[in-house]
Design a protein that fits this description.
This protein is mainly beta and about 120 residues long. Helix content is about 0%, strand content about 50%. The protein has strands at about 5, 10, 20-25, 30-40, 45-50, 60, 70-75, 80-85, 90-100, 115-120. It starts with a strand and ends with a strand.
Length: about 120
Amino acid sequence: QLQLVESGGGLVQPGGSLRLSCAASRFTLDYYAIGWFRQAPGKEREGVSCISSSGGSTNYADSVKGRFTISRDNAKGTVYLQMNSLKPEDTAVYYCARKGYVCSLKWTDFGSWGQGTQVTVSS
């Protein structure tokens, strides 16, 4: 089964940093845009960031611009989300998913969802 596997979540204090990883299992990442999404309890899933298949184009939600950076290493089959200056409102389960080539922040455009990794920002 083609899938993505997230890792790197955890508990961090406000102002801290985490780096999430999204690794491809049983397929090649090269041809896919990869998006990061998050869902907090009682809230809808929202788009956080996306990187195109080539890595030449990235999108960010306004709420994370200047704090989060998405990158990819196709040789390693992995996409990263570097999260700095974390805030309590960043607390959520973070998911990655894929779509063809071009980026989007609409979760309905994506498939092959991972199982998610929990990020908790709290003192």
